[in-house]
Fold these 4 entries.
Entry 1:
Amino acid sequence: MISKEQAIAIARQEIVDEVTLLDENEPVTITEEDGRYVVTFVRHNPPGTRAADYDARLTIDANTGEVLQFLVAS
């Protein structure tokens, strides 16, 4: 099983050249559910803004480190 830190590293590697983070210092959150990590690169929008609350969200298999899903906000 990979660690949460390894899952974040995998996610960071996957988004290179795919996602431009609005702020490199935005927080990264990670949750574990059903043998998967969900790594979210959080975006803080101004109040009243209708937009995704993340720049990218990746689901990673906690056992293999395989990226199962890669969502990018527009």
Note: The chain has one domain: 4-72.
Entry 2:
Amino acid sequence: MAVVWDDELEALFAADLTVALGYRTPAGGVVVQAVAPIGLHDRETGTLGFTTSLGFSKKLERLALDPRVAMAFHAREHGRSSSTRYVLAQGSARVIERPSEQARELVRVNATSYLGAPKRGPLWDYWMREYYITRVPVEVSVTRICAWPTLDAAGAPDVVIGEPPASEQAAAQHAPRNGTGPRVDVERAAGRLRATAHTLLGYAGSDGAPVVVPVALVTEAAATGFVLSAAAPLPAGGRRAGLLGHSYGAKLIGLNTRQHTGWLEVGDNGAVYAPHTETGYRTPANKTVQLLINGALAKQGVRASRKPDG
């Protein structure tokens, strides 16, 4: 049966400009990435949604291998709600690679409403083709919603809808073959994270579904990684985890995004995150420049996805 939510959550799902998406990796970890939901949701069918470009194929490949995802509604700025709730929706994602014209029109209308009208004309139509034309909706069939009264997700959720959360903590994972320590410059990466407004941690819960919670960077140590604090309880032991830091402006113009995969260790001395990989980008608060960058990235991604293996 479809998960059905109340009017308060319905208003929130229609309001937020961005969410943090957590999805599984083949090695058992979680990647956390900011995506735009642009109001795509349907209470009657119990589904939420967001859009992505076929040019960003790695995420789509991961979703095809393991559709378990989480969507964290964690930020209110530039959106349409002043709610203080942190909401985590978990479910199964389905990429609609060949959407109907009706579905495409819904995306166009919603994208214009939330993000502004697209630039048009021969040059822009060519440059943004891969970004707009190959953009597809992703539908998430919700299985569980957990909501907290405050955006720091402190303590236990006061609202749980759908499947009850597992009572046990997620078990610790085996350490990577190449070790658990940092593999990027910790001090430099910490500086970049501190320049973002939101920091979120993702890991696999005890039932395998991604869990995404807000965290704060307390300090950094070159030998071990970032020391994190979290109001939400974190599972003890070591595990593969993803970390996202991001900021955004009105209509998602002016982005600053830092993504990490790495190793999380939670013990008596707190939570330490050792970053293994780092990606990210920053765009100026100028729509024209940002669209040029988005178009170039989408073209590059589509071309790379069409290359034969080997």
Note: The longest strand covers residues 135-148.
Entry 3:
Amino acid sequence: MQTKILTSLLIAFFTVTSASGTNLNETEGQVKGVVSFEIPGWFKQSFLEITDDAAEAGENAKHLLLFFHLDNCPYCARMLKDNFNAEPNSAFIQKHFDSIDINIKGDREVAFNEEIQLTEKALAQHLKVLHTPTILFADKNNRAVLRIDGYRNSTRFRVALEYVYEKAYLKTSFSEYSASRVKNTDYSFKNHPAFSSVQDFKTAASKPLAVIFEDVTCEDCDEIHKTLFAREDVSDALSQLTVVRVDAMSSDPIIDVSGNKTTPREWVKNLKLTYRPGVILFDRGQEIARVDNRLYSWHFNGFVKWVAGRHYEQYPNVFSYMAKLREQQLALGHDVSYVD
């Protein structure tokens, strides 16, 4: 069922009716929050023969970093600003990685390996790139060693960079490495009116269910509770399904959506979640979508509503559903902001 969210991305994440984000019809709403950005000049000017690029990086004791992006994507702009254009990560990336940009709507030919030669947009579809930016790290043999979907702040992204640089992927999973590296922030769990208490997730997941995984090391949780979860529109969206907040480090017994007796700690490991707070949306006992990265309210609400209303049955691509919502809001004269 999870493959429902990983279909064609031909309908763009941030399509707008004009480059400025405004509509010609003044009675309609406006799309706000599209952000232009430039790829750093020190990115490699590649012929997009990725196997050769990976080998060349290896010869220089580096890894290859593929930066999948989308024009006007606010998350891409923020990722570049906070990590690639700012210290301490910028110098570290330039020293230890060869970076190449891939536009997920681009038409350049990419020789990804001996078997796969596609345009940029076809490659993004083949690799099931859902969130932008998506960052793929490869070793000298062009073997993917880590994938990061969506925005990460400088601290979290540094952990990913060092995981690859140290070749820790040869010894441990990124989830386990992250848990050992992130400092305890003594985050105090915050309550929310939408939260319910559930131990039997198999029964709960027979209907639309959101499981929010937090822990005491969660650097973003406090901010997200104060901003995203405090919004009335987000609370309204969450009220449309059962919402359970779980301590991702807990060893208390639970039953997962498949009926297995386990603990939240083991469940997170099996789910391979790499971000806190991670949100997984279930229905009828199956995972439908996950938000394993930071989203603003428009896109977060889109994911929640897509599952809560079972719109995934009509719109197998979540972004086609969001495009429909955007059209409806603009036609009603309401503005749509991607960065609130």
Note: Residues 1-24 have pLDDT under 50 and may be disordered.
Entry 4:
Amino acid sequence: MGNINMEPFRISRRDFLQYLLATGLSSGLVHPKPVFSQAPSTPVTGDHARGTRMDDGRPSATALGAAFLRAAHQVLDQPRILEDPIALRILGSESESTLRSYPERYATRSLRAFIALRSRFAEDELARAVQRGVRQYVILGSGLDTFPYRNPYAASRLRVYEVDHPATQSWKRRQLQQAKIAIPESLAYAPVDFEKQTLGDGLGRAGFRKEESAFFSLLGVVIYLTKSAVVETLKFVASMPSGSEIVFDYCVPPSLLPEGLRSAHEMLANRTAKLGEPWITYLDPSSFLSELRQMGFGLVEDLGPEEANQRYFKDRSDGLQVNGASRLMKARVC
């Protein structure tokens, strides 16, 4: 696929999300000054090198990696906890054969389980929000998320907004076209060029109604941002009408992990850092729950590995489950 000319942009997905969420939530137009670079701070080699920067119009390596793990779950695990018939198609025609031929590439079962889990958890909570009458769903840093193309609530008039960098969205739409995946009427793209508009501007241009309640997901993003950007995003959701809610995943500080899990976590962190996308923010669930309530969220739930395994992976014959530093949290405005 040909490149998208994004000059003079030389920006990583992490930097894009950082500026988008840290400075793009105010009602007025802001012009943050991004840090442009000609190359990642850490050398990147191999097949993922082109995926780390968005000036070539492709998602980051980590976004692509998560998409492959969601697809791998469809191929390798039975029963599935996430039914996603589009996960393979959106990656291209050769993806399924690659997954079946080289399953060892995706053998990190706990990570694969968590990638599927976080989407399932978000979609379960979205279903409850729709039952309560919420009719807007905002996917922040949407990447290759496939929910909008299999939205079961279109008849209920659930409007879905995909928020991402214009180049990433252009690449994704070409993938959809090649895979003959139709863009539903219930979907609105909200490309945000943070040099020219805020997140509020981008959503407003896409038809988002801030005066009405909304459901937000922020998956695979928090770890790459500064805490201030995370807090600004959460405050934005907390300012929404009653019934609005956000689901996000995060990692606990490595110091809270047992030695074995800490070592595995550090290995994975080093791998992502070498791809130019270092992990920045860790959250302590006990103290952060209090912070969320201080922001104005009336209902907060934290889902750790033990609870997740009991709810989603109980009595499996293949032993698929989650462990490690990653957790899920939901916060609702009441």
Note: The beta strands are 136-140, 159-164, 187-191, 215-218, 245-251, 297-303, 326-333.
